[in-house]
Design brief:
This protein is an alpha/beta fold. It has a domain of about 180 residues: Rossmann fold, CATH 3.40.50. A hairpin with a 2-residue loop joins strand 3 and strand 4. One of its GO terms (molecular function) is peptidyl-tRNA hydrolase activity.
Length: about 250
């Protein structure tokens, strides 16, 4: 993405985020803050379900079906998305399908996080990954967007990069096919057969992530500004060790 285009997207993110909470939204946020919540977001483009770029939405749909709540999607105008409130092993879970374009998906995610009382580290983004072949999936624990516009929008709007992601491989185009045409295209018949098993594996992995009990390290690690995750980890490590020599060395580095 060119520097000018990237700057324009950042401005759009900020403008769309400028809508204030109504009193009713504040009351609802307080209600939803009772108990920790997690959120799973299927990144994609509205109206383009079934394309490679929107495979995150496909995975989210498979998760909703596994949970038996696929008929409970409801539109939420405030968050510009569709939402399901569910539960996985006593953990309250919000499923979110943004209804904004991929480049500004983060606006929907940030608004939903505020409304439903979900911390950034408890937001699991599901998205397509060019650098992995179809059939490969992987969890990434925060960090840079790695060139993915939807993830970049989430990092910008949430102002942190700690969100874990489930990356669904779609592979790179072959021959003379452009990247844009590849990601916006639909899976071939042969690819669809492989995708079916990918959906099963992805839902299994999501349920595993949602069922995990919060570790002590997670509770000690606060949300960090974008690009500051490693620095936050080092600060917490120094705090636990209580070593003034390490603090001094870090200050000089």
């Amino acid at each position: 993405m060119s520097r000018m285009k990237k700057g324009s997207v950042l401005i759009i993110n900020r403008v769309l985020l400028s809508d204030p909470f109504s009193p009713a939204m504040i009351i609802e946020a307080e209600i939803h803050n009772q108990g920790r919540r997690k959120m799973v977001v299927g990144l994609g483009n509205p109206g383009m379900e079934g394309t490679r770029h929107s495979v995150g939405m496909t995975v989210l749909g498979a998760l909703a079906a596994r949970l038996g709540v696929a008929d409970r999607w409801r539109g939420d105008k405030y968050v510009s998305g569709e939402v399901i409130l569910s539960e996985v092993q006593q953990t309250n879970v919000v499923l979110l399908r943004p209804r904004l374009l991929m480049n500004v998906n983060g606006v929907s995610v940030a608004k939903a996080a505020a409304k439903y009382g979900v911390k950034a580290e408890d937001i699991l983004l599901v998205h397509d990954e060019l650098d992995k072949p179809l059939g490969k999936i992987a969890i990434k624990h925060g960090g840079s967007a790695r060139g993915h516009n939807g993830v970049r929008s989430c990092v910008d709007c949430l102002q942190t990069d700690v969100m874990p992601r489930l990356r669904i491989g779609i592979g790179r185009p072959t021959g003379k096919t452009s990247v844009d045409r590849h990601v916006l295209g639909r899976f071939t018949t042969e690819e669809q057969k492989l995708l079916d098993s990918v959906l099963v594996q992805s839902v299994d992995l999501l349920l595993s992530q949602l069922s995990q009990q919060d570790s002590q390290q997670d509770s000690l690690l606060p949300s960090s500004p974008a690009g500051g995750r490693q620095a936050a980890q080092k600060r917490n490590e120094r705090a636990r060790s209580g070593s003034p020599a390490e603090d001094s060395a870090a200050a000089q580095s």
